[in-house]
Amino acid sequence: MPVMTFIEAIRSALHDAMAADDRIMVLGEDVAVKGGVFLATEGLLARFGEHRVIDMPIAECGIVGAAIGASLHGLLPVAEIQFADYIYPAIDQILNEAARFRYRSNGDWSCPIVVRAPCGAGIHGALYHSQSVERLFTSTPGIKVVIPSTPFDAKGLLIAAIYDPDPVIFFEHKQLYRSVRGDVPEGLYREPIGKAVVRRNGSDMSVFSYGLMVHHSLTAAKELEAEGVDVEVIDLRTLAPLDRDAILSSVKKTGRALIVHEDVLTGGIGGEIAALIAEHAFEYLDAPVRRLASPDLFATPFADPLEDYFMLNPQKIAAAMYDLARY
């Protein structure tokens, strides 16, 4: 089984899916000639041609709008938004059109599009290249939101997203692109959307996270292991729909819950998970549900010390774990 980086797994998913199914197309800014700003689509133009790998204008509303139109005519478009920070002009097309096609047509039409977008901070990208915007999409019915943490999941979940009959927002943390490697099968395989996985079994505390924060949480959990605290780490993988059974099962086992995400605290998915636990597993809790997230600031700062203050890291997560364990 080949070992791939995260970005190679994304590229492999697109290549293998496009080779197997000529309905699949890729469109976005610089995805063709350049191969994408992070080279996720490198080589696809030469392999599949200009009718299936299309450079689009700098108009995110048009990129997603064209993808929606193509999907309604039998294609399976994968639209790339160059950075998650640029997705705002496309929100009307995503939330007001794509998410509602099944309902507005009484089930006669679906909108099988994928919108890929690199997200996250820590690369000195400052205001417009660092945002985590998943909270904007997790509250709208009809949209699935996927954020993988491993190369294996990146490929398997992307292929599953391409063949999902409804729109999927697929976020990829930029720090993972070349920092994480793992086994990735060749060919087509699918990981189920809406299913979390246990990355580390534990008995004293449940930590729920996704994307880059899964890796930071696993590092922090190893630190607490030396102190006799056994932490279970759950990789949510999908934020909409949430895997309610996995969340509640873990909390009922450990009695403590910490939710870790890079998105800002207010309005983040952590609040929804905390409410789910409070409503359905309150009697199992030995401590209040805790959330650890980025501060509610206007944007990620550019200066190194300020960016470090904004960003979560294993040390901050370990400190939150210690605090919850001592409650």
UniProtKB/TrEMBL annotation:
Occurrences of domain Transketolase-like pyrimidine-binding (ranges): 4-179
Keyword Oxidoreductase on entry: yes
Any GO MF annotation of the entry: oxidoreductase activity
Database matches in Pfam families: Transket_pyr, Transketolase_C
InterPro entries attached to this UniProt entry: THDP-binding (IPR029061), Transketo_C/PFOR_II (IPR009014), Transketolase-like_Pyr-bd (IPR005475), Transketolase_C (IPR033248)
Keywords of this entry: Oxidoreductase, Thiamine pyrophosphate
Cofactor: thiamine diphosphate
Protein name stated in the entry: Transketolase central region
Lineage: Bacteria, Bacillati, Chloroflexota, Chloroflexia, Chloroflexales
Keyword Amino-acid biosynthesis included in the entry's annotation: no
